[in-house]
Write a structure and sequence with these properties.
Radius of gyration: 17 Å
Structural class: mainly alpha
Strand content: under 5%
Order of helices and strands: HHHHHH
Shape: elongated
Largest sheet: none
Number of strands: 0
């Protein structure tokens, strides 16, 4: 696969990760579609193995999301800035402390956004707990799975 096409696949994967944070955008399926595009062009054992593993993981995530409580964001004061901070925190955490850093990065991003919005530590932390109970857990599960898939893809591209 040539570099421009590889960059386009990477862009689709990044759009999928960002799409997880935007309601109505099928972020998980964009990540899967980008990986499928890459696997169809590379046609290696590694590519197909990664596609199969990612398909299984992303399907399990869809079931887990379905089993979690429904997303309720009304009345919480959750803004788009909160989603941006949470996503940036998760990606930064995933890069700085591979794999496990996404969770504290996600929660830390929400905290920073809420601290800016509300001003005090106590109010911000209460808001973080409310956000995590209502929407944060399902978003975090989906985002974490997508970050794992994108990280594995990046590793496979570098390994080839």
């Amino acid at each position: 696969m040539d570099l421009p096409q590889l960059l386009l696949v990477g862009l689709v994967l990044l759009l999928g990760v960002a799409g997880v944070l935007i309601p109505g955008v099928p972020g998980t399926w964009l990540v899967w579609a980008g990986l499928l595009w890459w696997a169809l062009h590379v046609r290696s054992t590694l590519a197909w193995s990664l596609l199969v593993a990612a398909t299984g993981l992303l399907l399990v995530v869809q079931v887990v999301k379905w089993l979690l409580p429904p997303r309720r964001v009304r009345g919480l004061g959750v803004t788009s800035r909160t989603a941006v901070f949470a996503g940036a925190g998760a990606v930064l955490g995933f890069v700085l402390v591979p794999v496990v850093g996404a969770v504290p990065g996600f929660v830390g991003g929400i905290y920073l956004s809420e601290r800016r919005r509300l001003g005090t530590h106590g109010e911000a932390w209460a808001s973080v707990r409310a956000v995590m109970r209502s929407v944060g857990t399902s978003v975090l599960v989906e985002l974490y799975a997508c970050l794992l898939v994108v990280g594995a893809w990046l590793g496979a591209v570098v390994a080839q």
